[in-house]
Amino acid sequence: MSATTRASDSEPISSRRNPLVGRLRDLHEPRGRRQQQRLLLEGTHLLQEALRLQLNLELVLATPEWLSCHGALVAALPTVTRLQPATAEVLAAVATTLSPDGVVACGEPPSPAINPSPGFVLALDRLQDPGNLGTLLRTALAAGVEQVWLADGADPYAPKVLRASSGAALALPLERLDHEGLRQRLLGAGAAGLQRLATRAGAGQPYWELDWSRPTVLLLGNEAAGLAEDLAALADRSVTIPHSQAVESLNVAVAAAPLLLERWRQRQQRGAAPAAT
Ligand SMILES: C[S@@+](CC[C@H](N)C(=O)[O-])C[C@H]1O[C@@H](n2cnc3c(N)ncnc32)[C@H](O)[C@@H]1O
User: Fold this and answer.
1) Nearest CA, atom 18, ligand 1
2) CA–CA separation, 189 vs 219, rounded Å?
């Protein structure tokens, strides 16, 4: 039985009171995601990423118009994935975006393999803003980060983070910790010989002076409070991106880009192939 046949077999859901709508809407919130152990993936791009990463997709809900334009994607869905047509009104009720592109999916959270001796770790202390977190994860994936330690803050699987990360949140090995958990990780990283770099606006060594080819943990802090003092105290060095005094600091996701990509730049310059995630 082909996927396209599956789609036409069932009638589109047309009522917002359908129980499936409530179940998928519950995935907007951390509690619903925790209880169901599922994520909501909105839009064609995230569905493509989920398929590329071979995530376990339980359900794809799509408008008839989307289905008629995406035959190849429909055909690529695993047979265990339920394909459910729905009207545009139902799609809009399920999605968090104002103009959904006609498809949402629901699947299990990813479980990428964790490298026990990573060469490049990004550690985030209480990042609150979903847009910042998503943007940062996208850059982290581009920069060859092998592991992300997240102490408290925004849920990396919130729909807005997934969208802002362009799917990078699905591809990166993420570990969610509390403050003490991150402290312990930093102690362990120090014992394992990784250099731990605290980032600060206006204090520390300019980032380009460091040797980023060494195994490294890069620590970034909360949007308002910065990096917690006791975490910064565990770092081997403070690094900074120098800028004018017209601003006190940079947006954390903006600051992350040159810092994360400096390692890539230095390794390219030395002709070493940077570790891929
Ligand atoms: C908006 S800043 C926090 C500002 C906060 N008032 C403070 O005292 O740190 C958020 C994070 O972005 C990073 N950051 C911002 N500007 C930076 C800069 N010029 N150099 C290095 N990191 C920076 C740091 O990780 C910082 O903790």
Assistant:
1) 201
2) 12
